[in-house]
Amino acid sequence: MAVSDPSEDKKEKESVSWTDPSHATDWSRYRDPRNVIPVVILTGGIFLAARFYQSYLKRIPQAIDIGHNIWRKRSLFGKVTGVGDADNFRMFHTPGGRLAGWGWLPWRRVPDKVKELKDNTVSIRLAGIDAPEMAHFGKTAQPFSKEAHAFLTSYILHRRVRAYVYRRDRYERAVATVYVRKWLLRRDVGLEMLKRGLATVYEGKSDAEFGTLEAKYRSTEAWAKLRRKGMWGGKKKDYESPRDYKTRTAKATP
Q1: Is the pLDDT of residue 28 over 90?
Q2: Which of 9, 19, 94, 132 could bridge 102 with an S-S bond, Cβ 3.0-4.6 Å?
Q3: Rounded distance, CA 151 to CA 194, Å?
Q4: pTM (2 d.p.)
Q5: Is there a catalytic annotation at residue 173?
């Protein structure tokens, strides 16, 4: 068996020089536009796609998940899954609507079971209006509360709506102006209730929100009063607004 000469191994090691140009990194390939431009385009595309998803396609489970970048700036599109009182409901957020696959892609469906909807719907309170109070906690229902609830249910339940959200109220609901399509026309749900005398303009000291619609809402309420629509059709002395009802029953509660 041949034994190598240590002196020859040493000379061979010394002959390798890292300063030799043949061992230097060729940085020119990283500066070549043919390599740089595709990398920049790919990176930028990934970044823009992520931003687009976060802004427009990411589903919002509940009102508490609505970010500061959405309040008063953006709207939420979704399907109404339940109606509470006559001025609030729950909506399953479906960002992007049918264009994003909701309703026809297998993994983009709106749940229909209570268990699946739990903690997965945005609670919404109609902005700018106050509907007659239904019976709660032993309190009697106001006149026209059933009619108001029946109208809201028939008008929006299981339908797709768009909610322009303003802020979250003390009950963790998103206060919003809500629109629904009827015969290809976009209808303001709160305004339609005012027209029918099934709600009053909101007069509470807190949580009042109208967007830019306060004047329109007040003129519509005056129109309904003049024509004695809904709750305005009875005797004036018997009328009690939802706000006055809440104040009276709150004082009577021990």
Answers
A1: no
A2: 94
A3: 12
A4: 0.81
A5: yes
